Amino acid sequence: MDRFDQTVQKRVAVLVMSALALGIIAQKEVKAQQASASSTRQGEASSAGSENSGQDTGQDNTGQDFTSPQNLFQLRYQYKTAPGTGSLKGTIRTVTTDTLYLRSDFTFDLGSPWKVVFRTDLPFVAKNPISSDHPSGDYLYGVGDADFQAALIEQINQQWAAGGGLRIIAPTGPDNITSGKWQMMPIVGARTMLPELSAGSYFEGIVRYDLSFAGDPTKKNISKLQLWPMLNISLPDHWFFVLYPSADIRVNYGDPGKRTCNRA
């Protein structure tokens, strides 16, 4: 059974890496198509004159907007500490988790106003837990729980956009590092532009529900509501200020004490 689990984990990791590579190739194709389309519209844009001048000024896309993502390949780092059980019974020690994420985002335009967005994450984790299988508390290293997300987005008008999607999280990591559970995460969100604050500013509300449905039966079940009210304020010279940059409002309906993942 252990060999079967390891084989499944390796295959999922290979699939995720393939998806990341595909995302990089697809991004190059999209950029080439965008450059071609931009050159064909250059004459039309110049004839518009001052009517369209400065229309996009300050509207830098930071990649945080769920309804308007960019085609990106990112390296993201996260450092987190949490209380854990010490080597002596009843003692408390700090458990440190360092995570490096490889993330690929790819947007496929279905024709105005619809588009499909794909996201893939492959985390690499370093963690120092203490358990019956790992009493020393030394750092453990390995691949974390990989995930794949697909979402359908509608650009309703210049101000409003909304969409929904589903994220699947696979238990590709070892027991002492990751959850050991297959998880699904339905996602719905809406965004409204706030030109009264500044060009490119917006407010976005996202609701997610993280739910485990298979995996190691000895691991704690996951059932968690996640709320994400994000305010993005655009500032001059390509700066921006964000309130609630991650889904930190959470209501746990599952087993208590379950480790959570803060990836966006």
Largest sheet: 11 strands, antiparallel
* Class from secondary-structure proportions: alpha+beta
Low-pLDDT residue spans:
1-5, 36-58
**Helix fraction bin:** 10-25%
Could you walk me through the main structural features you see in this protein, from its secondary elements to its overall organization?
The chain has 264 residues and is of the alpha+beta class. It has a single domain (2-252), classed as Beta Barrel (Porin), CATH 2.40.160. It is 17% helix and 45% strand. It has two helices and eleven strands, in the order ααβββββββββββ. Strands 1, 2, 3, 4, 5, 6, 7, 8, 9, 10 and 11 form an eleven-stranded antiparallel sheet that branches. Strand 5 (147-155) and strand 6 form a beta hairpin. The radius of gyration is 21 Å and the shape is elongated.
Tags for this entry?
single chain; about 260 residues; alpha+beta; Porin; eleven-stranded antiparallel β-sheet; 2 helices
List the helices and strands and how they pair.
Blueprint: H1 2-40, H2 42-48, E1 72-85, E2 92-111, E3 114-127, E4 140-143, E5 147-155, E6 160-169, E7 181-193, E8 202-215, E9 223-235, E10 239-243, E11 249-252
Please give a quick description of this structure.
By secondary structure, the chain is an alpha+beta fold.
